[in-house]
Amino acid sequence: MPLGSLPRFRRRQATSSSDDHNKESPRPSIEDPVILKRGTRTRRNAIIVSCFCYLVAAVFLILVEIGNTKGTRVLGDIYFFKLDLSDILPQAAPTSLTLQNSIARTLGLHDFYQVGLWNFCEGYETDGITYCSTPTNLYWFNPVEILLSELFAGASIALPSDVNDILNILRIASNIMFGFFITGLVLDFVLIFLTPIVLYSRWWSGFFGFVALLATLLVLIATALGTAMSLIFKYALTSQTDLNVGADVGTKMFAFMWIATGFTLIAFIIHASLCCCCTSRRDLRTGRKGGKYLSQAPANEKKGVSLPNFGRKTATSG
User: Helix 163-194 vs helix 251-274: angle between axes, to the nearest 10 degrees?
Assistant: First the structure.
């Protein structure tokens, strides 16, 4: 009798063991942090890259906006364009003037004038930058007003016949560029901290994608205006042979502007792609995507399921 009861005891014990394993190894939940982290890994990495792009763009936009505000070695080399008047040809000059190191000094002018987003700086070839104007909102460079105010009495220079039209275009372009650069910097800076929200839903990706598009357009238009304005200004002045004025565009300023534009554009492309690609947390919770992560069970769970089956077969055969 004790020998006959042994197989029944073993079968019950195997079944009870199987139930215990099933209770101890539940199906993974969508609220499990490990599952959420694994399912949104690609989206999270894309968000990190976009935040880095916004950070780089913001840094270079700050350099663009603080350039030429002071006559230091670093900020003094960041400008849109630089006018060289050291060999300017006067239209008329009083005989009482004493010849200085350059014709510009003789006439009461400075050797060069360079323009930034907020102000202008002037100086001499031998002394460097000697003065920078006070930074002003919506600043625009009016060379005619500045030069005429510095000329000695009795001295004059030949100005282009269409100077008024050029100045009007310069004023409008400078004001638009100023506003777009400031707004673009603010948007890029804000997006550095708000972009991680798109990890939770594609709807947020659509909203921040629109904001990223706006930031990209603002920075791109401002950069294009700054580039075009500097090149046009250079061409307009150097084409006046009776002035003999030189002009150079700021290489560093151009590089900073276009680097900021490029990184802002890359961040926008990432935002746009997140609207339709990469699993979000909402996708996991609604079951739209990421089901494979819920069906994957840990290795120890699979081992626990196989043991009771092996025990039942052994008990039956015995």
Answer: 50
Give the model confidence (pLDDT) of 51-91 as tens digits: 999 999 999 999 999 999 998 889 999 999 999 988 887 76
CA distance linking residue 214 with residue 256, whole number of Å: 20
Q: Is the pLDDT of residue 315 over 50?
A: no
Reading the block at residue 66, the tokens are 């603080």
Report the first-to-last Cα separation within the chain, whole angstroms.
16
This prediction has a pTM of 0.75
What are the C-alpha distances in Å from 100 to residues 24, 87, 94, 124, 247? 94, 12, 14, 12, 22
Of residues 133 and 165, the one with the higher pLDDT is 133
88-120: per-residue pLDDT in tens?
877 666 666 666 667 888 888 899 999 999 999
